[in-house]
Write a structure and sequence with these properties.
Elements lengths: L1 E4 L2 H13 L5 E4 L5 H14 L5 E4 L16 H26 L6 E4 L25
Parallel strand pairs: 1-2, 3-4
Helix pairs in contact: 2-3
Length: 134
């Protein structure tokens, strides 16, 4: 398992918790709104693995809350779109070569608060993956 995050401290903490619970995980620093960061993460990943089975794009930001979409500035909206939409596409493009080497590749895009597995509006709901990569 690989944990990708732009916040190095939070990402490493998550990896430590997974390892403490008996799992295996490695940290990849990645900021999906920065193309160079995505490329660097892809290169780092290639040193540790030759394929990827599941890619979960769960990076997302809400700028000024859900109810302010009609009132936020264009700059703030562009920042959210850069992360939530283009960021997920950028990561998917970078990691598709590794997914294509998997026997059953999956991409899950969640870019919202619905990505919370506990609490929040999506708690207890099923997640759907659309795995058409081949």
């Amino acid at each position: 398992m690989f944990v990708g995050a732009r916040n190095r401290k939070a990402g490493r903490k998550t990896v430590d918790e997974i390892v403490k619970d008996g799992g295996k995980a490695s940290f990849l620093e990645i900021n999906v709104s920065d193309a160079d960061s995505v490329i660097a993460a892809e290169r780092e990943f290639s040193k540790m693995a030759d394929h990827l089975d599941v890619l979960v794009n769960n990076a997302g930001i809400i700028v000024d809350g859900d109810d302010a979409i009609l009132e936020i500035s264009d700059d703030l909206l562009k920042k959210a779109l850069e992360t939530n939409t283009l960021g997920a596409l950028r990561v998917s493009r970078a990691f598709v070569p590794f997914l294509r080497k998997s026997k059953a590749p999956r991409v899950i895009n969640v870019s919202s608060g619905g990505g919370q597995l506990t609490g929040g509006r999506m708690a207890g709901r099923r997640l759907i993956a659309f795995p058409k990569l081949r």
